[in-house]
Amino acid sequence: MKKKFLFIKMTFHISNIGLILIYLYPGSIFGWLLYGDKLKQPQLTSDFLIFSSNHLYAFFVLSFLGVLSYHKNKVEILFIYLFSISIFLELCQILIPIRTFEYQDLVGNIFGVFLTYALFLIYKLFNNS
């Protein structure tokens, strides 16, 4: 069981570093790998009304891995970190060549973290009673 939690925690940290690298790369790493064009961004699904679906998925998965890794302790610090990095990384794109700051992406980032946070609170509510 301990190895399983170690694997999940390691996956969270590697995913976190990977997401930071993807965000800070000037252009699209996935576009370059899939299409040979770093200006083309692959889209998993159509964007939702006010936020980017790709960003929602990325931050939901990262946040979910974080909760699985730290659900017994440091969860408040984890969510402060996740909300902060979701804002910080999008703001960094103002300075990165070929990248642009977009409110839709920012809302997708924050909503991905918030969705995980809400699910965690619901789980805690039913688990403690």
Describe this structure as you would to a colleague:
This protein has 129 residues and is an all-alpha fold. It has one domain (2-128). Helices cover 71% and strands 0% of the residues. The chain is built from 5 helices and no strands. α3 (53-70) packs parallel to α5 and α4 runs antiparallel to α5.
Major β-sheet, in short?
none
| Through-space gap between termini | 25 Å
Shape: globular
The figure for the number of domains is: 1
Category by helix and strand content? mainly alpha
Whole-angstrom Rg:
16 Å
What's the short version?
By secondary structure, the chain is mainly α. The chain has helices at residues 2-24, 29-35, 53-70, 75-92, 103-128.
Keywords:
mainly alpha; 129 residues
What is the strand and helix layout of this fold?
Layout (H helix, E strand, L loop, with lengths): L1 H23 L4 H7 L17 H18 L4 H18 L10 H26 L1
